[in-house]
Amino acid sequence: PVLASAHESGCIRLWNIQGNLMKELLPFSEYSSGPLTVLCTDISTKMLLAGSKEGHIICWNIASFLEDPQNKKNQIKEKLCWKAHLTQVVDLFYEEEKNVIVTASTDGSVRIWHAGNGYYFGYFGQSRKFDLSDTSRLILPSDVSNFPAIIREESKSMEKKIEYPLMLDRDK
């Protein structure tokens, strides 16, 4: 068993049942997610999802890490991040059978998203029926302008790269 806790700093901490910190996660994406407000997992605990005060949804693949937390090769991989609402996400859940994520916000909306790519299907109360089979057209809610960011594995190598462009030149 693992306990996940979300924090105002935007990090997630994973704890074992003895109360020892196993892992600390920070979102990798270019968007600052802000304080985290809600967490959920799928039924098989392969995916960890978080919602933020800024309206972002972040998805991590945690399956290999939970199989063997001591193995350093089994890392948690951030898969996807997107702006789902303009205001705080207060609840979310992942429906595995339909492969959708449902989010609720303080803006009063409840929205449905494709779990694999963050595509927007619609909102509860809309006049048209949900078409969960069509993931080819990329649409956004009227109040959101950023498309989902799929985190590529090759981009993670630059995660810790720090540049120091200013250097003291004593000759000048």
TrEMBL record:
The keyword Aminoacyl-tRNA synthetase does not apply. Residues 27-114 form the IP5PC-F beta-propeller domain. InterPro entries: Beta-prop_IP5PC_F, WD-EF-hand_domain, WD40/YVTN_repeat-like_dom_sf, WD40_repeat_dom_sf, WD40_rpt. Keywords: Repeat, WD repeat. Signal peptide: none annotated. PROSITE patterns: WD_REPEATS_2, WD_REPEATS_REGION. SUPFAM superfamilies: WD40 repeat-like. WD repeats lie at residues 82-113. The keyword Transmembrane does not apply. It comes from the Eukaryota. PANTHER family: WD REPEAT-CONTAINING PROTEIN 64 (PTHR44324:SF2), WD40 REPEAT DOMAIN 95 (PTHR44324). This is WDR64 protein. The gene is Wdr64_1.
